[in-house]
Automatic annotation (TrEMBL):
GO terms for cellular component: cyclin-dependent protein kinase holoenzyme complex; nucleus. It comes from Torulaspora globosa. Pfam families: Cyclin_N. This is Cyclin N-terminal domain-containing protein. GO terms for molecular function: cyclin-dependent protein serine/threonine kinase regulator activity; protein kinase binding. Residues 65-161 form the Cyclin N-terminal domain. CDD domains: CYCLIN_ScPCL1-like. InterPro entries: Cyclin-like_sf, Cyclin_N, Cyclin_PHO80-like.
């Protein structure tokens, strides 16, 4: 049972309007989902969207992507809501992509694009969000590269960061559905990422 008073206190620090997020938090999820399962499903879903645009250099392998997502979420202390919102942005970025578009190299990397979407999600949901300097420390990427990727994602989203409750629910439910999909990308052996590993994305 959700304590509405406690919920109001927590949401008071979110960027208004927050009614749609309040309703969403009070709704019943399709089932229990641990953080590890969430990360695993996000990794598979990101791979599904980007494996066709992978290159010899950028493979977008699901286990590697999942390890990266897990580490970035841990370092940034992102909650489930910002994670699902970032996943929503990620899908909308590639939904807007024409097959004729010439993608910059970083846009073929699901890790970098998801990171950019996570930055946008955190900025949208929080009045006091991390600076690019902090995100640079979290990811190991240069600030100028992060800014470039963020602007590219914003352009793809047409600067429309507001997501309706219906849209949010669609992508949240899609994460639950990924467990029934076959992984179409080749996996690599999984292991935790060190800071040195994250710097190689």
């Amino acid at each position: 049972m959700v304590d509405m008073n406690d919920l109001d206190r927590r949401l008071a620090y979110q960027t208004p309007p927050y009614e749609q997020w309040k309703n969403n938090l009070c709704s019943v999820s399709p089932g229990p989902l641990s953080s590890d399962r969430l990360v695993s499903r996000i990794g598979i879903a990101l791979c599904e969207r980007t494996c066709k645009i992978s290159t010899e250099k950028i493979r977008n392998e699901a286990v590697s992507v999942s390890s990266f997502v897990r580490e970035v979420l841990k370092r940034s202390k992102s909650n489930t809501k910002s994670t699902v919102l970032a996943f929503t942005y990620f899908n909308k970025v590639y939904d807007s992509q024409s097959v004729r578009d010439k993608l910059p190299e970083f846009a073929r990397c699901s890790k970098r694009v998801f990171l950019s979407c996570l930055i946008l999600a955190n900025k949208f949901l929080n009045d006091n969000s991390f600076t690019m300097k902090t995100w640079s420390m979290i990811s190991g990427l240069k600030q100028k590269d992060l800014c470039l990727m963020e602007r590219w994602c914003l352009d793809r989203l047409d600067y429309k960061l507001l997501v309706t409750e219906t849209e949010y629910s669609v992508f949240e439910n899609r994460l639950f559905a990924t467990s029934n999909k076959r992984m179409r990308c080749e996996n690599e052996s999984g292991r935790d990422l060190s800071y040195k590993k994250v710097r190689t994305i």
